[in-house]
Fold:
Amino acid sequence: MAVMQGETTRIVLAGKEPSGRSKLPRTSGGWLALAGKVVVGLIFLVAALFPLAWMVIAGFKSKTEVVSTPFQFFPEVWRWQNYAQILADPTFTRTMLWTFLGAVLFTVLSLTVNSLAAYAFARLNFRFQRTLWVAVITTMFIPGMTILLTSFIVVTRLSMLDTLAVLVIPGAASAGAVFFIRQFYLNIPASLEEAAMLDGCGRFQIFWRIFLPLSKPPFVVMGITAFLAYWNSYVWPIMTITTPERFVVQQYLATFRSERSTELGLLMAGSVLAAAPVVILFLIFQRQIIGNIKMAGLK
Amino acid sequence: MTTAERGVRRQQRQRHDRYRYRDTKLALLMLAPVLILLGIFVIWPAFYAGFLSFQDWSFYKEPVFVGFKNFTDVLSDPLFIATIGRGFVFVLMTVPPMLVLAYLFSSLVVAVSRRFASILKVSIYVPTIISGVITSIIFVLIYDYSGGLLNAFLGAFGIDPIAWIGDPAWALLAIAIPAVWLGMGLTSLIMVAAMVDIPTEYYEAAAMEGAGWWQKTFYITIPQMKNVFLYLLVTGFVAAIQQFELPLVMTGGGPLDSTTLPNLFIFNHFRNDINVGYSIAAALLLFVVLGSVSALVFKFVNSERLVD
Structure:
């Protein structure tokens, strides 16, 4: 499926307009149109990437240069020591590691529980199937704000406050992920399992031996979604984590900004390092993520 | 019907049910983790919120039933009504520009070489993965009044510095810009996917009839994409009216409440107001409206209507 979609995309893209290199425009109007496209494209590129580029450059500035009159875009001296200094701060490195560990645990837990449920809904025949499906899907439409306070009360009563568990467990089950993985499982041909059943495989073994090994595409997309959600989360942590040693990275940055507001170069270096893992993750898997947007948004 | 017949019927049905529901035990086992987690952390809190919205309750006393008082309090609170109005202004500042820019972007992507198209698609999506906190930090420093990049840039054209997030007249716009920056990626790529899906034959036929670019746009592209526009409009609306992380970090809702969007209003009440029922009632009202809007969109998207 995915491969075929990729093919049509390519054909359509190639069919609409010959690529610039193989057929250069012959008329001056053609050249003008090409130049126009390049200019508009560059404007989009700059708008998307400029704030990040500015953050990286500001990460090399001294504390007075990030905001300064008169304004200077580039630093006087490129201060690599900003990075050395923030990495030498044990609180920062511990926060990064702690958040990374939490994000990995969260991703694994979320893929495990959601794929089990997705398989049950896609393939098993059981009582209350429809009722349970409706119940699970309904949770997708409950805005976070509506249950923010009451789930805070729940985790307080469960004495989960200020632990890693309060960050990892409550958000792990996600109706959206169940839905997404189930869609993928529904498209796996039944003939695969029938062969396995003839060989005496049980239903769970079919999930374990056939479905899981085939699950890479939805797992990549949902795994990255989960990792990003954990890494970028801010509101839930500020409500539930109060000990500074256990802060997650977004909390650390926000606190740094309010408490050490003059050390802007250092703050920007820290922001660069905090954004780096997710940017790298995205660049590695960009093909799968972008290819799946169609599937995720509109089937 | 004799007793014997009825017995046979029942047996048949039982056998049928046993076959039909043959996996019940395994299914419940596999569903248990998700059902338990959703039950404890989503479904129970939702019912609990429904219960508390009819109570006068704070952390220090027993709940007392007060009927619809919390709801009438919320709806008659001019401050809350003002945040709703502000939410709509924010939606107008973010969603239409995002749709127009995304349309322009996708027209560009389908018209350039494959390599340039994929560079554009990857770049436009990068901001999507940046956290609200980091985005806020970057933009607050760019907006800095005396030493920020934006005022320095405008100064080069002789424009006087503007207190972007310090002036109530500009603050909401100053938050809308990073919101668009964060949201552009997904909107654009959904639009690109929809535009790529329009059959090329339509354009070829139109070209043979001598249609120009404008005619192709108005008679083929836009009509073919109207469902996607609708989808993006509604999901964009739901997302924008719920935005509160950016104002929370960038301005805290100020100056003079000019960036207190509905969810930030509720969140600040959670933290400062001991009358919990009031905040929950406000949150529930939002839920009823937004939850039904998104459920409708979900139903619409999953029917086949988007395809034809």
In short: Chain A is about 75% helix and 0% strand. Chain A touches chain B through 102 residues (CB under 8 Å).
